[in-house]
Amino acid sequence: MSEVYANRRNRLRDRCSASGSATALISRPVNVRYLAGAAPRGAVLLLGREEDLLLSPGPPDPQPGADRLDEALRVQTLPGRTGGPNATGGDAAVAAADLAADQGVDSLAVEEHHLTVSRHRALRSVAPRLRLDDVGGIVEQLRLVKDEEEISLLRVGAEIADQALGELLESILVGRTERHLALELERRLVDHGADGPAFTTSVATGPHSGRRGHRPTDRRVEEGDFLTVCLGAAYHGYRCEIGRTFVIGTSPADWQIELYDLVFAAQRAGREALAPGVACRDVDRVARQVIDSGGHGDALPQMTGHGVGLEIEEDPQLAPTAMGKLDACVPVTVEPGVHLPGRGGVRIDDTLVVRPEADGGPELLTITTKELLAL
Amino acid sequence: MSEVYANRRNRLRDRCSASGSATALISRPVNVRYLAGAAPRGAVLLLGREEDLLLSPGPPDPQPGADRLDEALRVQTLPGRTGGPNATGGDAAVAAADLAADQGVDSLAVEEHHLTVSRHRALRSVAPRLRLDDVGGIVEQLRLVKDEEEISLLRVGAEIADQALGELLESILVGRTERHLALELERRLVDHGADGPAFTTSVATGPHSGRRGHRPTDRRVEEGDFLTVCLGAAYHGYRCEIGRTFVIGTSPADWQIELYDLVFAAQRAGREALAPGVACRDVDRVARQVIDSGGHGDALPQMTGHGVGLEIEEDPQLAPTAMGKLDACVPVTVEPGVHLPGRGGVRIDDTLVVRPEADGGPELLTITTKELLAL
């Protein structure tokens, strides 16, 4: 695995050199994790002309899940850290700037979208002659297209989420609260080998159903409810997402069937539009048009899908204002939903990997059925 | 409750006026929560000379737990947000700066320890004539001393954690993994009414025991192990912490009894030192001296306690380099621990509220026994 991280750092080095900064300071934890294999608390990565260095404000904490620091990477521990994440005493970013200045580096590219104004000022004050540039979202861009190793971790995560959801569906649901169902799902994720949930598991019943990111409450599942479940597994740091809506009881009402069919058609349209070279906004548009045609366009959220990876919500966005096109090997969610205030609604959410048609088209990672199940 | 938030905002307004900025922009979510009762995702609080305004980048999400936005607060929703937390399109902080400039405000105090360099630049670019000052950690300072309402929420959270821990101790532990025990504790926290765990529950067995912030693994509890458990409940947003170490089997080994007695003595010394007016570093020192006298000073972490409240780790710090003195009504943890690599160790962790001697001295919130239990 060590080569993977060295290759990523070398790609970053090339990009930085091309934009005029030979030395870069990566402070955003998820970016440190991507480039170093793990992100000890408060650690930063100093990417030099030739050698890279991980500076950590304390002895390395045990890392979550299977994160292992690249053994080829030199690590330096700072003495005497007592501060929290906002303290500048023992701040690894400040120490890195100091070190770079000592080594005669004249310009350092930093992550201005992550460093706070206070930390940036502390960097300037320890190294007043060092020019601080902005590395921008280069690491986020590198992270966009996944290698097959990353995709296989997402695939395992999706299998785990499918298993946890499948087991839940076999149990009695009526009378149980949203919070208990969410906790049971999270326990099952861990039982099946997840590091933990990829995000706060959402279970929404009755009038809550169909709401994006609904936080579970003490409401109990009742006959006739829509039940929307959205969960994901974190596996070796990679996060996937699945969302399904079910109906409780023997026969769904007509409005439930109609709404379900509409959201299902929108979600299928979005999935089928995924291909390398397609504009992200066009994927959003085809899904949105279906919902619009059913008269529920106003109920749609501002985004119908997004990238996943080390973060549960990362680039690209599938939204009307999104720029850019899809590439092969980019994993995304497709998750339109409609929530009718007071009544409830439907969300259907899959994680897929964009693949060219020659490879069989989009690869569906979350394979739980999307039929409207009556439970 | 509405008055509580208005009073907090008025205190902040007084502080800001005293330091020359009549208008402040609060962007750090936990600070927004403190001043507004809830922190919708991406929302910021614009504290004006007379009126305050919450700017939210989208329709309000359902809030976690019992967080309710102060009804007396004016709320403005920004149109057309599609960006994530790093996107500046639809950034409520940028919109707030724009609005302040429109209203003829000449200087705006911002949280430079929270705003990133990129967002700060976006503020400057929408409102080039607006002078941006630093509000510093004023809100964090206001949050330090808790009112009795806040303390009662912490007290309920501590009771919940005690209950969850007590129930676990009645079950069979040998053969179960750290991960399962941690999940069971988290489920019990929610069963008893917590919003959720206050932080990732730590269960550490055998050689892992005594390690601060140990992430649960698949190691199973064995006869003769030390078992360290650290958990907390979040209740209406407030977070407490309890940590205990047990021994598995009928009779602890001599080294286990010795180490336990040492850490217990250190923790008691720390607890007994808590009083209004005492220097934070002195509380740390008395606990540290006990551990030092037992020859384990090197194994001590850099901090023996910290404040709790809306964050699980907030000011003050109980550490050798900490500045400042304790006040009445400040809740802190006292949590010395010793971890011997390869063997394991002991942590004992309580949440207490600093009270004057006339009121009975420090109030212990986490009341689970600190005897060395053999389970």
UniProtKB/TrEMBL annotation, chains A, B:
Record bears the keyword ATP-binding: no
Swiss-Prot/TrEMBL keywords: Aminopeptidase, Hydrolase, Protease
Region (Disordered): 196-218
Annotated Creatinase N-terminal domain residues: 8-145
SUPFAM superfamilies documented for this protein: Creatinase/aminopeptidase, Creatinase/prolidase N-terminal domain
Keyword flag Hydrolase: yes
GO molecular function terms attached to this record: aminopeptidase activity
Domain Peptidase M24: 153-355
InterPro entries linked: Creatin/AminoP/Spt16_N, Creatinase/aminopeptidase-like, Creatinase_N, Pept_M24, Peptidase_M24B
Name recorded for this polypeptide: Aminopeptidase P family protein
Originating organism: Streptomyces griseoaurantiacus
Organism classification: Bacteria, Bacillati, Actinomycetota, Actinomycetes, Kitasatosporales
